[in-house]
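Hey, weird one. I pasted the PorT family protein sequence into the form twice and got a warning about non-standard characters only the second time. First submission, copied straight from the form history:
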Amino acid sequence: MKKTVILILFIFTTKGYTQFTKSMFSKDPIINLETWQKQRLYFGYYLGFNSYGFKIDYKTVGPDIQIKKTTGFNVGVVADLRLQEYINLRFEPGLYYTKRDLYYPNPELTSKTDYLREVNSTYINFPLLLKFSALRTGNVRPYLVGGMSTTLNLSSNAKSIDDNLEQRFRVKAWTMNYELGFGIDFFSEYFIFSPSIRGSFGINDELIRDKDPNSPWTGNIESMKSRAILINFTFH
């Protein structure tokens, strides 16, 4: 981690940034790490940010629950298996922390402890992805990535017997998602820097209903699925 921070600082100093830009985008760049991605298997790690929300479908038409998103963070590791010159299989387990505030418009919910639910989530995400790389140009190689992931929510409250009547918002511990995105591999002299942006889309309904079928918090919800934008900075 310390070595990576030093390298990032080096890149964004005046001299370091100039050298980095020249090696990436000059007309005749020196080809860095030319045989690196010909390895059968290699590893890395990533740091990043996320913005999680919910896609909510309702049983009957009415005022929507308002969702306030915040910026969370991601950290994880990467295992990359080369299947073919332009196709890689990637496993990217990581820890994602995020927070969402749900504001219920129900006029019966007059106090803040009733109309507001703070949903803090700590996810362990297990994505299995295919990476489709374009032809490398100099020290730059764009790619598309997509696949499936399984997520464990450590803050789900799934085992709690209390519900929203006791101010306890509950979701399922395990969920399935599909993920789609794109990124760029930048080959420097010492490492590969890969910024990427990806969307994560929940497949199954996550909500655990309250014991009261007419609950003002869960009674009108047909399904609730996570949606997220993930921005990761990967180092190999």
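That's the output from the first submission. The warning seems to come from a hidden character in my clipboard, not from the data itself. The beta strands are 41-58, 66-69, 71-84, 87-91, 94-103, 116-133, 140-153, 174-187, 192-202, 221-235.
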